[in-house]
Amino acid sequence: MRETTAKSIPVFLIRVMIIHTLTYIVAGILASSLLDYRSVFELPIIGDYMVPYGEESVVWGPYIQPARGLIIGLVLLPFRRFLEKTGYGWFYIWMIMAGIGIVATPSAAPGSIEGIIYTKLPLWFHFFGLTEVLLQTLVFSIFVHMYLRYPTGIIKVLPPIFGIGLESFAGACFAFIGYALISILFAFINQVPITAEANMSLKVQGLFIAPFIANFLIIIFFKNMRFTREVHPIFTFLIIWLVNTISVAVYQQFILEGADLLYALAAPILPALIIVLIAAPRRIRGINRNIHF
């Protein structure tokens, strides 16, 4: 990607949206598992304030995050020239997020000064969720600043092993989103209720974890093996689709006690396409190019 393009407003906004969404999802999954949000949200007073863990809106939350990321990007837009020139840009972004967005937010939100004053939530709960939001915004701030400092791609400034790992992890995350979208589509078609209680269980999430690991390894393979550059994208797509289909079908058959052949065949299509766009060379006017993060 050319530097002028990499520094453009659309690219900046897209990167902020992606970074926010990915860090939000990862932080949310880890925090909800480690801090047992399900039990905490059922406690007196807290249960009246927070949406129950099993509500449908909880499942939809991650899919709204790109819109939040866009708003954050627009807020940071006037400051990006200043932030890219200072080595402490990540800290300034984090202070904006934590100071105005969390602690001193005008709304009476958990973890904020106004929330402590004007809500009946117990004091410990205000500090309970700070770990997740502070860490998520910190990681978000670091990555946004790195892209401001190195607009053509932070992969190039990282040691090779970290660069490959980061790019592969990001690609696997995008493929994971593809699985989620297809799964929601199947749920709507089959009129299956979407609840966090059912879908966030380890047994169900394992259906996505298996292909996630497979896709992570696939991207590493395609990024490191030179001979894969000569493989036509269609064959690359078929290989990735086949590996994902097998992993989904096997997991369904032996863990979920029954394979859904239609789902196993259809669900990997979008993830495989995403991985091809990320990992496989693209032939544009005879020049092999890759999509870089």
Automatic annotation (TrEMBL):
The keyword RNA-binding does not apply. The chain crosses the membrane at residues 12-35, 60-79, 91-111, 123-148, 169-189, 204-222, 234-255, 261-280. The keyword Membrane applies. It comes from the Bacteria. Keywords: Membrane, Transmembrane, Transmembrane helix. This is Uncharacterized protein. The lineage of its organism: Bacteria, Bacillati, Bacillota, Bacilli, Bacillales.
